[in-house]
Specification:
With 315 residues, the protein is α/β, with parallel strands linked by helices. It has two domains: 11-190, no CATH class; 207-313, Metalloproteases ("zincins"), catalytic domain (Zincin-like). The chain has twelve helices and eight strands. It has helices at 11-30, 35-62, 72-84, 87-106, 108-111, 151-162, 167-176, 180-190, 207-218, 262-278, 292-298, 304-313, and strands at residues 118-123, 129-134, 137-143, 227-231, 240-243, 248-252, 281-283, 286-288. The chain has a three-stranded mixed sheet with strand order 1-3-2. A three-stranded mixed sheet has the order 4-6-5, with helices on one face.
Amino acid sequence: MKRPPIRIPNLRTFADKIHSSIYWLVFSKINDHELKSIEHQISDLHVQILSLLSIINKHCTERLGSPADLSTHSFRIYLWLEYLSHQTHLAIHLSALGEFLRILSEQNKKISIVPEKLLIKINYSGYLYRRQIIQGKTILQINEAYITAPLEIKKSILSAAFSRHQSKHTSVIKTYSNNSNFRRINKQVSGAPIANLISCRGEKYNLAILFIKLNNEYFQDQLSQPRLVWSSRRSKRRLGYYHPEINTIAVTKKLDNKNTPRLLVEYVLYHEMLHQHFGIKNYNGRRYAHTSVFRTAEKQFKHQKEAENLIKLLY
């Protein structure tokens, strides 16, 4: 029986409160408020983070699942909180936000934004950065992996977010996202692999069972089980995808029915498992997923031609 993602009531609201606490804490610090008060606020913030993590873990355990059974957005929140629960990481995060606010203060004559109408959220979203206006308030999201970026990259993010002429800045920002330092922080935030326990079950197929079979047959059980989900994303041709940042393999839920041959689902899953196995290669600023080595391995799938013909029948 299909099991939907676990839902934590008001999780986004709680996460936004932590973002707001971080924002005002750092704003106070760079405006020379008393250090003792700041240290106390940091301690309270850490307690808030640990408390919310405890609520999430308890909620998932009670439903016989894991945090990987949350929706993708909620799972990203969980990974972000888990990362910040380490005080060293929290300190780096606070320092990075301080840098962004100081840069913004220097540019304030051009941007003209008052602190009460701004919120900078350094989080683990799927965006490199994103600026929105919500109820008259400017919300700027910046990917957590930029926290150790050089000052010039941070300046470029703010310039791109608040300028009408973004192209000269966006190319620099995207290039840095292929930097080893960016990938290192990404890996730290994503943490150790977490397998989901219930949301991998569809109406017809259980992706975890298929993964175990394919892992044994083609990978000598060397792959750690990632988060396996049935995706509701609408795409005419894309049947699956692998998100290395959150260690997730998604298969389109339109294949989860009694009319879909098991062979086809296994082939789509195998394709994404190859992405997990080989990763994505970066060369001259470009990313390559379907390398010659990848294509050779793809042909090792038994009955590949039959599976490819089944895909053609879908369109």
